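Inputs:
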Amino acid sequence: MNYLNLSKNELLSEKESLQKKYEDYKNMGLSLNMARGKPSSEQLDLSQPLLDSLKSTDSYLSDDGTDCRNYGGFDGIVECKHLFADILETEPDNVFVGGNSSLNMMFDTISCFMTASIYDDTLPWHDVKDRKFLCPVPGYDRHFGVTGYFGFEMIPVPMNDDGPDMDVVEKLVSEDESIKGIWCVPKYSNPTGITYSDEVVKRFAALKPAAKDFRIMWDNAYAIHDVNDTPDTLLSIIDECKKTGNVDLPILFCSTSKITFSGAGVAALAASPLNMKVLKKRLTYATIGYDKLNMLRHSRFFKNFDGLKNHMEKHKKLLAPKFKTVIDSLDNELKDAGIASWTNPNGGYFVSVDVYNGTADRVVELCKNAGVVLTGAGATFPYGNDPQNKNIRIAPSFPTVEELQSAMDIFCVCAKLAALEVLA
Amino acid sequence: MNYLNLSKNELLSEKESLQKKYEDYKNMGLSLNMARGKPSSEQLDLSQPLLDSLKSTDSYLSDDGTDCRNYGGFDGIVECKHLFADILETEPDNVFVGGNSSLNMMFDTISCFMTASIYDDTLPWHDVKDRKFLCPVPGYDRHFGVTGYFGFEMIPVPMNDDGPDMDVVEKLVSEDESIKGIWCVPKYSNPTGITYSDEVVKRFAALKPAAKDFRIMWDNAYAIHDVNDTPDTLLSIIDECKKTGNVDLPILFCSTSKITFSGAGVAALAASPLNMKVLKKRLTYATIGYDKLNMLRHSRFFKNFDGLKNHMEKHKKLLAPKFKTVIDSLDNELKDAGIASWTNPNGGYFVSVDVYNGTADRVVELCKNAGVVLTGAGATFPYGNDPQNKNIRIAPSFPTVEELQSAMDIFCVCAKLAALEVLA
């Protein structure tokens, strides 16, 4: 029954019936969480052998003979650079291996450009008083947090099914020198789960920004994170930028946070020689080098890129039924009502739901009161401001399938109830 | 024979004899390194069982039940906060546990204050165009590197046997609002190995800086790093600052880099609630949390502070003969000549030698040509500028005692030779 075609009385009756269901759920005293893209305990268990991949009796030497226990090895051990080069589709020489967090490397990259100029004739961004950053929406709240912290005015750019609206991006960056960058999750985007089309990647590589020091923060967090057997493919931004000559535009990031241990993985970035020079100048003073023993653990555990991909198959097996549960619930419970739309991604960690206009915060509130925690409404927009108050990010990875089913039952009731509060 | 009392002919004859010795050493084709404070392989071996302290079959839960494999635990696991609180003599609530490098945490702290103001009515330091930092000399080159990178004018402050010359420090900070901080290695100072006296610590705690946002970077890198059985003691700067009401003055740092693995240890900082608020505001955006599995490994390996101190006894046993070798060589080979002076520290990682005025760079060059690498002359001064060109930092930890003996034999010949080149 499509709510938009119902009479006032029919709406009221439907609302009453849902209100009852909702009260029943509330009385169950559930405590469920679909807020963050946290791997489940079962997913973490997959990497348990990693803890044994470097025992006291094993060699602590990297492939080039570095004692991974001691100082040195500034930009990462050679075998780990190879592994990340494979993930990011570039050469090991372009890779810097960091600590346990790619978010941290992104933060440090922006932090670097805040006080260091990229070119002799550009300013540190701290000195660009009206500095701005493009934020495809809905997007990743922690990205927006970084540029928000550093005082950028954040300009939302609409996301389409094939990536950010490139007409908007091209127009904005060509006109405004104070726009210094854009956040991108190009594959299995957070939260919509879409992958940038070849055309979008090519248009990114062909950008002609007014700001010489404009940079694309290319967060390839889900490069190999499929959740079904029809995976997306992403064109290499590095290759495309080589063709256009814009090699300095993108800086790429990834990590093993959603491959091995979210709290104890290894992160890396890839950048052109010019960008790397600016970043390494900072890093030379910021550290003697990141944790090489953890790099060694990871390299030994995976052995090579094939080992890494095989490992991801195991994640897929655990995640597939969870994504199916979410999508099936939405299909079964919300499709007919005609008050919501959602994405059905082939990978990543999220399903993005647009509930009835103006009701996202109410849906989150209703869910919370029934024991289901969701990412805050608006979190996927800069400043937490979703102008249509409709986008909600669902993170299916952490709960069990059973918990997820309950949480989705409640979510769908809440989504309908919130819509009926407006419609009826 | 005191060179300063020799006749021209005696000097020339001594020089000739040393020149011969030097050529003999050169012909040996040695390759020895006393440049950096790197633990030896034997020292790293002491922590080898740490690699087995968290196996796949062990619990991955911290004392408060946190799954250390997953996201979360922003400021460190509870048992690790306790351990660092013991080292830094403060409460766990004042501690933030970071990644593998305290240098990195110091860099991030300065980086934080570059773009974020500490008080509502103070400026981010990037906006203080004539910003300055006090640098006790001789000091730690990597400290100076950080403030040099961020464009501070670095003002050298003389080091005495009991710490920085506090008359100079007090005068400078009380007069100049653009002086934003001072670097301190208060115990077993890098490189002189002295420990700040009670009076110096009290005077630090009683400072009345013109700059409200002046901060003491208290790098307690060698808090428990004795090399003999007559250890120094250091007054708690936190306790002293409580007495004076200056609780926001110091920020403390330490790490296990010279306790477990230099490249894969755990670092921490301690700060007052106000400082912590400013730092955590940044860290909230910079990371979801540092590597908790490595924190867990360390906590399990040491069990408690007593375990940590017992472990340091083993380091002492390995380091003591090395420091003795250095001091004995200096005593035997250089004392009579009257052209050099040095420190004889009870802990830390360095012996600081003042060779004959104006010859440090020549001594380093002579050593290098005979296969002995030293820290570059001037490295212990901001901008690498030792105005008297006399200070050389000797790092005895990495070579074996035998290698060290050879290196010191050569060093002493070179120190004498360089002096004679001037005197003769």
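Chain A has a mean pLDDT of 97. Flag for discussion at group meeting.
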